[in-house]
Every structure is written in C-alpha cells, then in structure tokens.
Protein: Histidine--tRNA ligase
Amino acid sequence: MAQKPSIPKGTRDFNPSEIAKRNYIFDIIKKNFQTYGFQPIETPSFENSDTLLGKYGEEGDRLIFKILNSGDFISKVDDATYADKNSNSIAPKITEKALRYDLTVPFARYVVMHQNELDFPFKRYQIQPVWRADRPQKGRFREFFQCDADVVGSDSLLQEVELIQLYDAVFSDLKLEGATIKMNNRKILAGIAEVIGAKDLLIDFTVALDKLDKIGEDGVKKEMLAKGISGEAIEKASPLFLPQSTNEEQLERLDALLKDSEEGKKGLEELRFILETIAVLGLQSANLSIDVTLARGLNYYTGAIFEVAAPKGVIMGSIGGGGRYDDLTGIFGLKNVSGVGISFGLDRIYLVLEDLNLFPEAINQSLQVLCVNFGDNEAMAALKLVSQLRKAGVKADIYPSSAKMQKQMKYANNRNVPYVILIGEQELNNNSFIVKNMKEGSQQEYSLDNVYQFVTYLS
Structure:
C-alpha cells in the first residue's frame, strides 16, 4: 500500500497564489530596507549548537531544533551517561549543530567573524527562514520567515527612532493602517525589579511579565510567586497591572515608581527622547504607545524593546518586535559593540492582510495573456506573437495543444487571465489577432504588424 503523504506539524506547502501574496509583502519590506540604507546578508540555516544555546533564556533554548550528528553517534555516548537517560547530558554528545532560532544571534556571530570587512555602524537586513519547536497554532509555526533590520556599532537613540519610522513606512505601503508599535525599555524593567526588591530575579520577573496578555494578571502573579518573587515585591509592582493609559500618564507613573533607581531613570530618559523625537517627525499610519508590561523574554535585550500589534479588531499575536542589545557580540569575543534591530513577522502580517482584504486585486494574476491554440499553423503565429509580448515584458503564454475551445477558456478563467488572444484561420489571412477582454466580454482586433499598439493598451 502506498504511503499517505504528510508534512511535519507547524510546516506548510504554499500554492502559487500564496507565494504571490508572500512575495508582495517581501518586496515592500525589502524596498523599504534598502530605502533606509540597510544592506543584505545571509547566514547558514544551521549553526553550531554553542552559538545558539544560552542566548534565548531557558524557555527559548527548549524550542531550538537540534540536529543529530551524522554516523553512529550513539556509540560515542558512554554507558553511564546513556543509562542515566538525561537528555541534557546526552545531547552534547550526539548533537553539535542546531537550526537557527532567530536571525539576531547568527548576525552577532557574523559581525564578529567579519568585523574587519565591515564599515561601522553596519546596517544589515536579512530575510530568511527560522525554526522553533513551538506548539503550532494560528499565526505560530515551526518554520517561518523572519525579516530583520539591525544596526550595530552605534548607541545613538536616533537608530531607535529610524526603526520606528521603518515600521511605519512598511505598514503604510502595505495599507495596513492602525498598527500599534508598543515600546518599553529593559532598563525600566531592571529599575522596577530593583525598587521592588527582586533585582536578582530580573529574568524570572520579565519572563513572567511578558505573558500578561496571554495568562492575565493572576497568572503572571502566580508564576512570579512560583519563581521566588515575594508577594510584597509583586504588590510594589502593582502599578504595572493598571489599565493602559496615555503615554504622558504612563511616563508620570514611571517617574514616581523609579525615583530611587538610577538605571530605571536612565531607561525613562531614553523612552522620553524617542517619544519626543517621533512626535516632532510624525508617523504616517502607525501608533506609538508605551507598554510597561512589554518585556520580550529574550535575555539579550538591554535598552528599548518593541512589539507591534495588529490594528484593533484583528485577533492576532504580535506582527513584529525587536530592541536594543548593548553587548550581544561580546558573547563571541567582540566587546562594547551596541546594536538595535527589529523584525517583521511575515506570516502573521500575511494573515492580517488576508483578514482585512488588503492584498491588491490583481496579485493572483500570474498571466496577463493566453493565446488559444487552434492548430499547427495558428499556433506558430501565436508563438511568434507570444515571443514579442514577452520581450515587451508582458506575461504571456500559449495553450500547449489544440484542445476544445471550452477547455482552453476554462483554463484561462482558472488562471485568472484577463486577456485571451484568438488567432484562427481568418485572422491568419487578415494578418491580425483578436483580444478578448475576459472581464467585460468585449473584443478588439489588432494587426500582427503592430503588436506595440496592444502592449501600449496593456500598460
């Protein structure tokens, strides 16, 4: 019996229509990356395990896909380790590589390895797939593309301002109005942890806080207690759980909460500068909002952090995120190189555009013109015409066999072809061709000696 075909959970096949829509998003993102002066790089789909592990926190590390060593890897595990059945002990002996979890850590590794070839500040963009052993659900996949833009070698807050503008420019070009760029600062979170007496539990504090929109206030408090954060400390942090208010009101609330923390006040200054600068420059279609509960669980963020929410009314997780990392390259031996970057969540942006019907109507039009095949002589004339149209940049084709007219027209309709060309015996004698407008049902005759007239009409 033949095996029933299947694909792993959390992965997808893409049909031509889906590819066209994804490329539409890719093209707009890439155009804006280049407009803002970012340069493209690519890194391998898999890295050495020690490059990735320990960079994303305990939860992130569990989601990294590890690659088994080739050959008889089990024979290299000693009997005692094997008998212990502890995956953490066995893993280093049987796997040395892993699929990349994101593009940022590989980028840091790239910068360190190529530091003598780069001009700093170095602005790079990268559009490649990443893999996470996550639980699949709507908008969350195990294999997906990330579209990243990062700047390394500058600690200027103007970079944060520019990345907010970049988000706004892309969403405006996609006609995705009303997206909210949520912003916080890791120094503020560190300051809060300090003033509530949980400085040594900063990671546990931020990881729990970052889940507020998923598990609610009670769930976050329960997790904090489980991680050893006292009830008294949680009570001191209660302003974080108040309903979101205006940016000005949140700045005042943070001023009061962080009055005894130098680090917290530094983060507040950075936040205020970015907000004031954006207020002067303005945004086209996005909103910029402080979210004091935004933590982003990745350990390498040290300053501003961003997360983008879809327009109101669309139920979807974040469609972008990023932040400042002051010394990510330091883990690979290059100290004091600050960086900041953002990522666009292609797959979720796709779902949002689909939900809001924002893809252009003609996006599925992979073919502009189809020539009907009436037989050998007519087909030869059609082939010559198709060649001329293709040279003029028109997406044109000829049906490969002289099948029944009904079948050929059905094919044209299924391919969403707007124009069908007819060259029959009479048209051969007249040295002409007939163009049928499939939407209107009208027909127009053109001379085969003046194909440019039809091309001009198409454009």
